[in-house]
Amino acid sequence: MFSCKSRQAVQASDPSTMAGKLKVFLNTNVDVSSWKTIMRDLRDHPRWSYVAFARDDEAPLTALSYRWDGPAFDFAKIMSTRWDSVLRDFQAKHETEILDHVHSERLKPHVAKHKKLWVDQHCIPQVEGRMGCIEVAGQLYHGPVIAAWLTTEAVDKAFAAGRAHELLGELEGWLGRGWVQQEVTARGKLVNLDAFEHFFKMGKRSRDARLTSGGESLCLLLRRMKGEKVEPIQDRIVRFYAVNEADFTVEEDRGFNIPSFADMGYEAFDIGKQPAGYKLQPEIRVHGERVAMVDANGNTIAKWFRRKALYTRA
User: Fold this and answer.
1) What does each of the 314 residues of the chain score in pLDDT, given as a tens digit?
2) Which run of H or of E encompasses 264?
3) Which residues, including other chains, have CB under 8 Å from residue 170's CB and lie 6 or more apart?
4) Which helix (H) or strand (E) holds 97?
5) Contact residues for 77 (Cβ-Cβ < 8 A; gap 6+)
């Protein structure tokens, strides 16, 4: 989720067409006496904060999966001196206006389309106690999800400007982050899959092998996001290996994201260091440094195979 290098400008729609001020709303049930009470309520009810143009506590929520980049870090730096003012806003009316900034401007077309967004940087106040909210944030991605700011218009603009390779790099960088692997599961419903499919189509049309293969790989992984009530075991296995090989800024965060297989009797061990009497679980095939798995759609997904593997008793 975190990177200070990725450039997202090619993915933003023209914000000048969006009217109104973006705000962060707290559900009116949130106890706004202090940051301590606010963070407690948001930990217990993570859907009680959202970004929108107007209050609607009952409407469905769409979560944004993205990685922090230059604009996001710059926004955080500016906000670091303003949280006292935000608290006063919340105490007065359970809402606060979002600072005008390129980072917040690119939210506008998505809010205009989906009405309510959950965006970690805005919906989890960056104050003491936020880690409790981060630990439970995964449940927000069991519903509708927007991935990486991507729209079909942004894809068209990138190809027209000769920046398709740059956009592909941003998308692959987003998907390579550890927290994203928690967010990209079959439990969520990807609402902008059409934009990724459009990238794949444009890549094939360009006859550029890198754009074609990269677009196909993205689609294979993201087509799992169909909004199923229970994550299929095949997809849970894909997620296990994806999380283990992904990049985390804070290594301890990896543990929050690795799915459990206690119900299957599988255990995770360092590769090649499993106890006697254990064997690799049967759903995977090993090809050199890669492990191949078949997801719930019947697609073969290949991942690097370096950290841990799932084993079962022989």
Assistant:
1) 333 333 343 344 444 444 589 999 999 999 999 999 999 999 999 999 999 999 999 999 999 999 888 999 999 999 999 999 999 999 999 999 999 999 999 999 999 999 999 999 999 998 987 887 877 888 889 899 999 999 999 999 999 999 999 999 999 999 988 888 878 877 899 999 999 999 999 999 999 999 999 999 999 989 999 998 888 999 999 989 988 888 888 888 888 788 899 899 999 999 889 999 999 988 888 888 888 999 999 999 888 888 889 999 98
2) none
3) 6, 7, 8, 10, 11, 148
4) strand 95-97
5) none
Backbone angles phi, psi at 283, to 5 degrees: -80, 0
Cα angle for residues 39, 119, 249 (degrees, 5° grid):
85
| Contact by Cβ (8 Å): 308, 268 | yes
Q: Which amino acid is at 172?
A: E
Query: What are the structure tokens assigned to 138, written together?
Result: 């995964």
* CB contact at 8 A, 32 and 94: yes
In the block, tokens 């690097």 appear at 304
Assess contact for 140 and 63: CB atoms under 8 A.
yes
Instruction: Determine if the pTM surpasses 0.85.
Output: no
**Which residues are CB-contacts of 22 (< 8 A; sequence separation ≥ 6)?**
51, 52, 53, 97, 98, 104, 107, 108, 111
Say whether 257 sits in a helix, a strand or coil: helix
Answer for the pair 170, 127: CB distance below 8 angstroms, yes or no. no
Strand (E) or helix (H) holding 66: none
